[in-house]
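Reminder to self: keep the SMILES exactly as supplied, no canonicalising. Ligand is S-adenosylmethionine.
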Amino acid sequence: MTDPLAARTLIANTIRAPDFRRATFAGVARGANPAGWVRVVVRPVELRGGRFLQFAYHDARQVRTHNVAPADAATPLDEVLAVGFSAVHLDTDAGQTDIRLSKKGKVLIGRTAAPAAPSADAAHNRTKDVPLPEGRADHLLEALGGMTPDGRVKPTMRAKFTQVNEFLKHLAHTLDDAGLRGLGRPVEILDCGSGSGHLTLAAHHYLNDILGIPARVTGVDANPHVVQKTTAAAQQLGAADARFACGRIGAFESTADVVLALHACDTATDDAIAQAVRAGARLLLSVPCCHQALNAVVKPDGVAEVLRPVLRHGILQQRTADILTDAFRALALRIAGYRTDVVEFVSPEHTARNLMIRATRGLPPGDPAFVAEYRELCRFWGVVPYIETALGDPFRRLVREESS
Ligand SMILES: C[S@@+](CC[C@H](N)C(=O)[O-])C[C@H]1O[C@@H](n2cnc3c(N)ncnc32)[C@H](O)[C@@H]1O
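Structure tokens returned for the bound complex:
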């Protein structure tokens, strides 16, 4: 435990030090907060004239930045400290420091040393062009219980960490196409089937703290236990604008700009797609999970009889149904007005569920060529895919009305 003055000195010295990376002030504001800041992030920036400190002030709607020379940082720092944020996180090359301000005004400090320098090969593998390289996302990993005592990603968490990084790469890659930079307000992100919250909180951290794009995230999951855990992790991170709600995907109305769904089970992926379309989301990124619904009804009947040699074998039938399900989803999104592609998400060694549907709003809905393809595919297989049910009447009018 220490006193507030010593904490101030520690923060002031840290942000001026050459190895300083980032300081995040967040959590409950217990002091005067006339500007309504929910988070302030300070990081070094190289500008003409040398090294400056950038203060990024996030309020509920937008982010404002202000660059100062390190020698002039005392005044903006004292303004931020006067807000009395309950959680301050300091990140330097040497390690990380967490400062907690309790309700009773007590100051608690915890430190984690940076992991020992990895071998050249390992370092290459870890840092090559990933949004959250190992050693830089420690605070997040700690809150999610994914870090070993010596500061590495837990072996049980490694595949998920890789998937989250790949997901964030796709998010970063599509931000401009979806017009998500410079909205003039925080980007609203909805994570459907958020589970243990790795993706939800990683997206929050990546956009707000690394890319400097203000973002609010909501994770929705039907399992109350995971919602409880992820809510606690968000609090530990001081991420006041990351929230988790318990319920079924689609049960909450949303105006999300971005909808994410990573391994939402079976038709939950369709429900996430439908939620994105209803919200008029600018971007949908979805990695489907198991595909059961069509597998139960795909049959070598009628014109599909020619595929009997394929569907005779259970594993081939399952894979056919998988491909067909995702083809229907991608086509339905095109009909709903989204530029859509289907890409490999991660290499199969990390997960067999390694296909991503990426969709950006921007096509006129109801393109007759796509509608014709959709009807023909339904006719060939003699099925109505669940995505049609999930998208409901507005979609049915686009694909069925002319033919009736
Ligand atoms: C395989 S986990 C994936 C979790 C997380 N997206 C990830 O990749 O780490 C699927 C999650 O989706 C949730 N889920 C499945 N169907 C759902 C539905 N219809 N509505 C809400 N949550 C659902 C489950 O409770 C579970 O937590």
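Points to follow up:
The longest helix spans residues 314-335.
The longest strand covers residues 20-29.
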